[in-house]
Write a structure and sequence with these properties.
Layout (H helix, E strand, L loop, with lengths): L35 E2 L15 E3 L2 E4 L4 E2 L2 H9 L10 H8 L9 H13 L3 E7 L2 E7 L6 E6 L7 E7 L4 E2 L8 H14 L6 H4 L6
Antiparallel strand pairs: 1-5, 2-3, 3-4, 5-6, 6-7, 7-8, 8-9
This protein binds zinc ion.
């Protein structure tokens, strides 16, 4: 029998190996939790279907969310359907800087932009007083993204960021119901997240 050494992919979120830490989570070990969410990019109208674009040496089929770059080929293996995490920066640039932008809402664009430039997030979705709020976690950072209605233009979504270790909002900019979501973030990190958040590892969030 040939035993193959398992390669550890450092880019992938680290899973808990100590199940005692998960006992307080009623939804069970490694269950991403009931609010875990995958955000789909809206469908483009049919007239986009036959359009083909080029970005540098890459060929883009925006309707089917395909690009010929290596990054997108790998992401297609990992993410399904219209999951925004499937897109590469070429698709993002094409969509966000052309007539195609009109078919994508502000929330999808913010989520897409962040995924493309900073890496895929674990998303959790909440509705509170008719507002749609999405929390985005990444294993490499303490900061948690809070996608919420823009406090100055509530018809649009904006990305806010909160650091649960220092209890600071980036640029001191906080969305409506921000304090409530500080608590939701804290509980998600302690009980639900399927990877260990930096703040928990460093002992900031044990209280
Ligand atoms: Zn690409």
């Amino acid at each position: 029998m040939i035993l193959e050494a398992k390669r550890v992919d450092l880019k992938k979120p680290k899973k808990y190996s100590d199940l005692r830490k998960l006992k307080q989570d009623a939804t069970g070990p490694l269950n991403p939790g009931e609010n875990y969410y995958v955000h789909p990019l809206p469908l483009f109208p049919l007239k986009v279907k036959d359009k083909r674009y080029r970005y540098k040496e890459f060929h883009l089929d925006v309707y089917n969310l395909r690009c010929t770059c290596e990054d997108q080929i790998a992401k297609r293996e990992e993410y399904q359907d219209r999951d925004i995490r499937k897109l590469c920066k070429h698709l993002y640039y094409k969509i966000s800087s052309s007539w195609l932008k009109q078919y994508v809402d502000s929330l999808s664009l913010e989520l897409l932009k962040n995924s493309v430039f900073f890496g895929p997030e674990h998303l959790y979705k909440y509705e509170y007083k008719k507002s749609l709020i999405i929390l985005g976690f990444r294993s490499e950072t303490e900061w948690v993204n809070v996608y919420a209605p823009n406090i100055h233009h509530p018809e649009e979504h904006k990305r806010y960021s909160f650091n649960p270790s220092t209890k600071r909002w980036s640029y001191n900019s906080k969305p409506e119901y921000g304090i409530l979501f500080e608590d939701v973030i804290h509980r998600l990190i302690k009980n639900t997240l399927t990877f260990e958040h930096h703040g928990l590892k460093k002992g900031y969030l044990n209280g």
